[in-house]
Backbone:
């Protein structure tokens, strides 16, 4: 895992300079502290900062094919590289290294742009075809590794993180207000949008090419749910097939020439991964987890139980509110986006400890909830549709009381209000955002803090009205759980969990996170399963729990889901006062200078939080959202590009 | 200050973070207008109990009693006259 950056100059323009490439890649050293490499030819320059994981001796990048007509830099891992290499060698290709990287150039030689279909991995790839003078950028199917690009004065700038683009961009950055309102609705930007005007993200499962000055972007993969009753076996048969597939995914993702650790939250997903590692590999098992002062967020008991059961060498990093608040600015610098939760910050603290312990790679349980219908949000959608078929029923909405048992202040704690809140737009069962509406409505309250000037600009902007998710043609024909899963994958998973809470916080400390549940074969397999195999009545991840029987104790499999969460607003106060940077950033002067927020409203919010009266979701999210936006402004809009960073 | 005025002032300041009382009508549904989120009702109940010295029982936490300034004022009046 690494950092990549590059420039494709326009024809007739000056070639990219080494100094430009050095500035770009210099800002990504946290992604690759083990070495730097460059390739320059024609109008293109590629740069790479390496985190050495596979083929430590000869795997330095950029890497060419046999006749040096194709060059690549990439960030990530190609997990099926041994099998792919054998296939390519059988077709006559000659390899010079032992790296997974080299499979990319030979696969492109062999298959053209279809090479991406042969890759099983997590990747952001930049490839230069010298004969055709053609640039290819490709991103993995799920969006595990990031890749951004920006056209500036006829040149294409591209990199793993926006800060590398910013380092050479001829113009300064501006916040994209419509994208900000999307973050303040569905927690992330969507599709190719970022929070910076003129900077785009290559979406998951897409490939971008530039040839003769013409850019094309194509989708090569997407989540799909073609339930095929004839093809899919019984529940038990499918569970067995899932088990074998998951074991194979873990086996492949253990491939490394360095030690591999694992995160162990104590929940089903990470426990399942760790139990497979223990049962089916000789990998010595070092596991890591987070603990909190507050019982509401802490899962130590379950973590210890699992660590003891599996006999892992386990370490816990205790995260206090104060530490979370103090690390927040560093986190925002890595995330490069406003956020509405502090939850990624403890994960950044955890990756620091992982690195100190000598590990560069960890396996995590991320993705299982999206793939197998684990979230309470999916149950919420199911109950609401059930209720909608008999809207006058009083029994049906009572089922909402079974949701969110882990929340101290539950949104369904009062049945009458739960019915009132979740009964809104009840009959709109075909609305793609049916399951997400309540969450988005709560989050959208953050927009009340925007300044009148920003709000009037947004009223005129179509992109701000609703997140523009392009739905597949067959979406309407899918089962309702599948539709909800798709929306979740395209918003929270791709734009936030894999990004701000995944890649960025691990890479902040030069740690590569791997996600076996997002092996595309597993995602495709789960997409073919009927909804009832995943959400059985109101039992989440039913098939996964069955697949893991025999690997996990019954009490872990039966444990009610507790999603990972961290304290929010209280982290920004100490001894009854805001942390100094918060006080400064949220001062009336700074708020008016930046112009994003209503200074009076923010002042009242800050006071409410300071007094400990912000018990609701939206107040907590609002404070996190405002602080993170002001940090993005300070770090990426107003700070000099060269001086920014840590 | 009347009960209605006090309640309106509390809701506008605490949930809308504003001092502009014209943003909330006495009969406006707090749920419909998205003024109170799914956990905000607990803040409202805490305020009513502390400010007016009444106890809001679980079975009384209904939109009919709490979903508008008028409804809350009426509920407080009934609780006080019954005590």
Residues:
């Amino acid at each position: 895992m690494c950092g990549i950056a590059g420039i494709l100059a326009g024809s007739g323009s000056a070639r990219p300079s080494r100094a430009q490439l050095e500035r770009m890649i210099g800002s990504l050293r946290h992604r690759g502290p083990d070495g730097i490499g460059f390739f320059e030819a024609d109008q293109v320059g590629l740069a790479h900062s390496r985190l050495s994981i596979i083929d430590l001796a000869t795997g330095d990048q950029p890497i060419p094919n046999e006749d040096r007509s194709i060059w690549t830099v990439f960030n990530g891992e190609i997990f099926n590289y041994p099998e792919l290499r054998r296939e390519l060698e059988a077709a006559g290709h000659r390899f010079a290294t032992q790296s997974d990287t080299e499979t990319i150039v030979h696969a492109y030689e062999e298959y053209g742009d279809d090479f991406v279909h042969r890759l099983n991995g997590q990747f952001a790839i930049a490839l230069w075809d010298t004969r055709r003078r053609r640039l290819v950028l490709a991103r993995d199917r799920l969006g595990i590794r990031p890749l951004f690009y920006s056209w500036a004065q006829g040149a294409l700038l591209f990199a793993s993180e926006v800060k590398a683009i910013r380092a050479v961009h001829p113009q300064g950055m501006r916040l994209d207000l419509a994208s900000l309102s999307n973050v303040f609705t569905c927690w992330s930007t969507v599709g190719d949008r970022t929070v910076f005007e003129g900077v785009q993200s290559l979406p998951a499962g897409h490939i971008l090419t530039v040839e003769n000055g013409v850019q094309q972007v194509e989708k090569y993969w997407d989540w799909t749910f073609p339930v095929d009753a004839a093809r899919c076996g019984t529940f038990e048969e499918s569970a067995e097939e899932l088990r074998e597939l998951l074991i194979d995914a873990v086996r492949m993702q253990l491939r490394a020439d360095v030690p591999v650790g694992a995160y162990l939250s104590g929940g089903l997903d990470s426990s399942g991964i760790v139990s497979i590692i223990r049962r089916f590999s000789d990998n010595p098992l070092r596991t890591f987890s987070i603990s909190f002062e507050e019982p509401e967020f802490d899962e130590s008991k379950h973590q210890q139980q699992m660590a003891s059961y599996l006999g892992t060498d386990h370490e816990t990093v205790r995260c206090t509110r104060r530490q979370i608040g103090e690390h927040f600015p560093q986190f925002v610098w890595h995330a490069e986006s406003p956020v509405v939760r502090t939850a990624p910050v403890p994960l950044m603290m955890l990756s620091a400890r992982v690195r100190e312990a000598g590990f560069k790679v960890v396996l995590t349980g991320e993705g299982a909830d999206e793939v197998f219908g684990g979230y309470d949000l999916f149950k919420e959608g199911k109950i609401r549709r059930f209720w909608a078929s008999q809207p006058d029923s009083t029994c049906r909405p009572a089922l909402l009381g079974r949701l969110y048992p882990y929340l101290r202040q539950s949104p369904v704690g009062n049945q009458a209000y739960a019915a009132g809140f979740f009964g809104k737009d009840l009959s709109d069962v075909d609305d793609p955002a049916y399951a997400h509406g309540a969450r988005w409505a709560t989050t959208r309250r953050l927009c009340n803090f925007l300044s009148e000037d920003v709000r009037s600009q947004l009223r005129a902007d179509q992109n701000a009205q609703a997140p523009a998710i392009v739905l597949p043609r067959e979406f309407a024909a899918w089962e309702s759980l599948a539709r909800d899963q798709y929306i979740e994958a395209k918003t929270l998973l791709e734009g936030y969990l894999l990004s701000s809470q995944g890649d960025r916080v691990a890479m902040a400390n030069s740690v590569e996170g791997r996600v076996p549940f997002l092996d595309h074969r597993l995602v495709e397999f789960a997409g073919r399963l009927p909804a009832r195999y995943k959400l059985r009545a109101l039992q989440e991840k039913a098939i996964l729990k069955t697949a893991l029987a025999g690997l996990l104790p019954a009490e872990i499999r039966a444990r009610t889901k507790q999603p990972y969460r961290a304290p929010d607003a209280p982290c920004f106060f100490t001894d009854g006062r805001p942390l100094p940077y918060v006080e400064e950033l949220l001062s009336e002067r700074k708020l008016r200078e930046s112009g994003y927020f209503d200074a009076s409203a923010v002042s009242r919010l800050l006071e409410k939080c300071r007094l400990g009266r912000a018990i609701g979701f939206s107040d907590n999210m609002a404070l996190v959202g405002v602080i993170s936006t002001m940090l993005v402004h300070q770090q990426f809009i107003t700070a000099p590009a060269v001086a920014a960073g840590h | 200050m009347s009960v209605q005025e006090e309640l309106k002032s509390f809701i506008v300041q605490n949930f809308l973070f504003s001092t502009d009382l014209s943003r909330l009508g006495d009969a406006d549904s707090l749920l419909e207008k998205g003024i109170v989120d799914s956990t905000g009702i607990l803040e409202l109940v805490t305020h009513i109990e502390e400010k007016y010295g009444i106890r809001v029982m679980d079975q009384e936490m209904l939109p009919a009693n709490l979903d508008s300034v008028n409804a809350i004022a009426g509920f407080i009046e009934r609780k006080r006259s019954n005590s």
